[in-house]
Design goal:
The structure is a homodimer. By secondary structure, chain A is α/β, with parallel strands linked by helices. Chain A has 13 helices and ten strands.
């Protein structure tokens, strides 16, 4: 197999592009896809202060690596989830990456700062482990970005993640969640802009990039993620992709081109400030503070008025979509 | 396992309804689902003359059986596709069913009437075998219904068929095809109304109904259908359904409730009469006449003006959706 660009021996095949690449050309093409995503979706400005959500996994470290290489001012943020040895190894690998590039890594420990870790949250709260993990990440990343004065949060969501999320939302015709799925979530008061520069690249490609660039990353999956719905959507997409290469990207890009305009109906829930932490919320207290109070057995000031699941869902959906809640990557 | 309705020993489990039924109750529930589909979607009037497209498979014979049982005036139409022993057995079984119920079965032989059979069409034309088969069925059923003065054509599309079609169209965001997917396609000039009374029932349920009612049907699959895209969409849906029972019906019904209104954008292609056969078409000659001319090596009057694939696709989509083109069942 020869490289499509330079005719040297290829090391990776990209079936949906009917192409194969040598190591150097693959890295070049990978960066080109990231540039294209950034330019087309106006993700990052050259003067932006960027906070990359890093978990120690292939996607987030590949993202940080490529952004640094492209000359962006990108700090990292690692969130300690307290998932035993898995979190220990993730933290070490992330710190080693930051040291090797001589870049700033911020760290927040969920248990230290908020009084609970993810295994406890999964046992004690009413949400699934993956749900509370996703909620916590989005909350902490946004808060850290606000506090640190960052312009934008970059996450490592890849094509497989985005296609699986879209499939899940479409299988349920969650029209409001579908409407909000985008490679860019614009900033608003109290909510930092979020971008997904890897959304054009498959999971296999981010893994190959990390490998070819000599990035050491956590290969093991989060031990709490087994049986996760999102993984089953990925399996279903992979089964179709295997015989029809390009299905995933057609699905996601076709949605962005032709489907999304149809779903952009009014779904602007009124946003106010959480009565406990001041972060944006559509209710009296934000979803994170309510989860935290439930897990810790504390009360949020006066008794909360009756709430329905809908508000939870809306707040979860407000930044990233709800079926993205699973937790192997600190997004 | 006990019957959910009468507590007798159950013979079938319907996981997405979290229910199980004995033979008599299952038949009752099955009919209830057909009635619900007919009522909710205004499919059939008591005085309508109905033409059921029958292939000899479980779906179409179950449909004919249930409609007769409900007292509808339903004749059958069998289309001889010329697919060797498979078509021979299908024809015999269909005739035997009609005789046993003492009802009218009309028959059209594709080769006799139109000069080609499906295996030849697959080899000679530019369309895939399944595509030309689907096209031929829709054309012949419509023409036979018009000629015979029928009010409505009923086809045996089940929940699995419809969910797989929707998945295929959604994966490609074929917004115009998505917009037209419906359990009822209203009649218009030259086009007989089409209904799918089994769309609320799964493939497993139509098979169980046929079995429990003692209906002899062709179990073998069309020998030409292997590798068909629609089958892979069914596999993907089945994989998700296995761990999340109800996904298929949520997907289809959720689309009909919440998705479809968003897609009902203007896609009313101008319909005229085919210059060769007079049937409705969006171009100069209809897709069937063009396929036929290509297969037989004849010319359609004066040379055709340049056409693009889009017109083909639109005409195929006009009655039934394009990924429904596969051919095991004479729909």
């Amino acid at each position: 197999m020869r490289c499509t660009r330079c005719r040297e021996t290829a090391v990776i095949e990209v079936r949906r592009h009917n192409a194969a690449y040598c190591s150097a050309c693959f890295v070049h093409v990978f960066r080109g896809q990231v540039e294209r995503a950034i330019d087309r979706w106006d993700m990052l400005g050259t003067d932006d202060r960027i906070l990359v959500a890093v978990s120690g996994g292939k996607d987030s470290l590949a993202l940080w690596d490529v952004l640094l290489d492209m000359g962006y001012a990108a700090d990292g943020l690692y969130l300690g989830l307290g998932i035993g040895g898995y979190s220990d190894r993730s933290g070490e690998i992330t710190r080693a990456f930051a040291e090797s590039r001589d870049v700033t890594l911020r760290t927040v420990d969920l248990a230290e700062t908020y009084g609970f870790d993810i295994p406890t949250a999964g046992r004690k709260g009413s949400r699934s482990t993956c749900a509370v993990c996703g909620l916590s990440k989005r909350y902490v990343f946004n808060k850290a970005a606000l506090d640190g004065g960052y312009d934008v949060i970059a996450t490592g969501h890849n094509l497989d993640d985005e296609a699986a999320t879209l499939l899940g939302n479409t299988l349920r015709w969650q029209t409001d969640y579908i409407a909000r799925q985008s490679p860019v979530l614009p900033g608003k008061v109290g909510m930092v802009k979020k971008v997904k520069p890897l959304f054009r690249l498959s999971e296999l490609e981010t893994a190959a990039y990390a490998f070819l660039r000599g990035i050491d990353y956590v290969v093991e999956e989060c031990p709490l993620v087994r049986g996760n719905t999102q993984l089953r959507y990925k399996d279903a997409m992979n089964a179709i992709e295997a015989t029809s290469p390009g299905t995933k990207s057609q699905f996601l890009f076709g949605y962005l081109d032709r489907g999304r305009p149809l779903f952009r109906a009014a779904d602007d829930a009124e946003v106010t400030s959480c009565g406990s932490c001041g972060q944006p919320t559509t209710g009296r207290f934000c979803a994170f503070c309510r989860a935290q109070a439930q897990i810790l057995g504390t009360r949020l000031g006066v008794p909360e008025p009756q709430r329905d699941d809908r508000q939870d869902a809306e707040e979860l959906a407000d930044e990233v979509l709800p079926v993205e809640l699973y937790g192997a990557e600190a997004r």
